[in-house]
Request: fold
Amino acid sequence: MEENVIHIRNLTKKFGDFTAVDHISFDVRRGEIFGFLGANGAGKTTAMRILCGLSRPTEGEGTVAGYDICSEQEKIKRNIGYMSQKFSLYPDLTVRENIRLFGGIYGLGDRRIREKTDAMLDMLGMQSERDQFAGALPLGWKQKLAFSIAMVHDPGIIFLDEPTGGVDPETRRRFWEMIYDAAERGVTVFVTTHYMDEAEYCDRVSVMVDGRIAALDSPDRLKSEFHAGNMDEVFGIIAGRAGREE
Amino acid sequence: MKMKEFAASVVKEFRHIFRDRRTILIAMVMPVVQIILFGFAVSTEVNDVRVVFCGDLSDAEVRRAVDRIDQNKYLRIVGRLDRPAEAEEMFRKNGADVAVCFERNYGSRMVASGHAGVRIIGDGSDPNTAQMIASYLKGVLQSEQSEVSVALAGDPRSSMTPVVQLMYNPAMKSSYNFVPGVMGLILMLICSMMTAVSIVREKETGTLELLLVSPVKPLWIIVSKMIPYLVLSAANFVSILLLSHYVMEVPVNGSLLLLSLAALIFVVTSLALGLLISVISSSQRTALLICGMGLTMPTMIFSGIIFPCESMPVILQWFSDIIPAKWFIIIVKKVMIQGDGLASVINELSILAGMAAILLAVSIKSFRTRLQ
Reply:
C-alpha cells in the first residue's frame, strides 16, 4: 500500500454559525497530483489554510507530512511549500534576492542558498535575469520562479493555490510540466484551480460543494460516472446540483 | 526561532524601504521639510515687525519712545502717519504690521502725571500674530513709561506696570514650541503610518500569506517589519535634534539619555498603533486614511503644537489625554527646553509606558485573532 502524506478525517471549520468546511475526509498519496476543485465560497481555501497550518480546525483530525494539523503546525510549515494565486514574489526585490529571502526564512544556510540559487537559475534559464526586479519579469516566468522558490527547501508536499490564474493555456501547459517533474521526483502536489483543463492533468480530483466533498476520483472515472465528455461538464453537473439544493 | 530566518526577513524589509523612493522620501525628507516649514513659514514669533507711528515728533518724549522702538532687535520703524485712521490704509497695502499712536501732548502729560495715552493698532486679519506683536510692543512701551516716571518723580508711581519675562524662552521663539511637536508628529507618522502601510501592502498583494505559511513565527514577522522603522525613527530623532540645535537654535538643556528613552517608549507606542491599524484596515488607502484622520490630525490639534490644551473645553482636554503624542511632547518640552530630570517627568513617562504596554498587548492579540 502506498503511503498517505495527507490524511484528513471529519475536518470541520466553523465561523460563528457558518460552516465553511463540513466534515470532509480524504487521503493524498506520496507523489500524487491532487486537484482540489470547488466554486468560490465552497470552502476550499479554508480547508487548504488548515492543511498549511495557517488555521486550526473546529473539529476533526488529520496529519500533513506526518504532523498533526492541530498541534504541530510549526513542523507542517517547515515541510511544505506554498504558492498562491497572487504573486508569490516580491516585485521590488531582484530574482536573486527573492530566492535568498525565501531560502533564509526557511532556514537554509548561506552556502546552500548559493548552490540552490545557481541550480535554480540554470534550470529556469534565468541566469542573465538574476539581477532584474521580479516585478519586471513576464507573467509566465514569474510563476515558474515562484514555483521554484516555493520548493527551495525541498518540501515533500507543495500546495498550489490557483497557481496559474490569468495566464494563457500555453503558459499554463508549460507550468504543468514543472509540476509533473516535481511529482516524478516524489513531491506530492496539492493544487486548487478553476481551470478545468488543469483538472484533467491531475491524478485525482475532489470537488467541494457547500463545504463538503461531493466527488473524489480520477478524472477518467469521474467522466464516465457522470457520462461527461470532459471535466468541465463533470464540474457543471456536480456544482449545478449545489445550485438546485440552495 | 533561528536568528538567520529572522535576519533574512529584516534585510527584506530594509530593501523594501530603500527601493521605494516614496517611502524613503517620506521617511528622510519629511522631518527636514517640516522643521524648516514650521521654523520659517508657520512662525508665530515676533520678528522683524514693521511699525508705523503717529504723533508729534517735536515732542521729546515721543521721540524717545520712537527711538526705543526702532532700536529694539525685533521692531523696525518704517514710517509716520498723519492721522491714526491712516493705519488701515497701511495694513491694506501691507506696508506695516502695527501702528503706534501717541496722544496729543504726550510729553507734557507724561511729565505731569507719569501717565500718557498710547494706542497700539494691530492688524487683526492675522489675529495670533497681531496679539503677539501688540503685547510685545506694549511691553516695550511700558518699560519706557515706567523709566520716565521713575526718572521724573523719583519714586515709581507707575510701578504697577507688570514686566513680562518668559522663562526658558526669552525671545518667545515659536521653535521652542514646535520642535517637540514636530518630533512627536514625525516619530508617530514614521512608526504608525509606515508600519501599518507596509503590513497592509503585504496583505493586499497576498505576500503576507507566504510569510505566514513559512516557519517564521507571526510575531517575529511583525517584529522584523518594525525594526527598520525603529532604525528610521532613530535616524529622524537625531536629525531633528541636530536641525533644531544648529538651525533653530533650540537648546537641549536636559539629559539626552532621558530624552532618548522617552522617544523609544513613544516609538514602541506608535509601532503598536500601526500594527493595530494594519489589523483593522484591508487596504493601504484605508490605513492611510485612518492614520491621517485618526492619528495625525488629533496629534496636531491636541498635542499642543498649534493650540494650547489648557484653553480647550474640558471634554476635549480629557480626549487629548488619550493621545500618546501629547505626553511625549510634554516630556520633550520639560527635558529639552526646561532641562528637567527624571523626577519631574516620571508621571508622563509612566503614562506613556502604560499606553505602550496596553497598545502592544491589544494589537498583538488582535493580530493573532485575525490570523486564525
In short: Residues 174-371 of chain B form one domain.
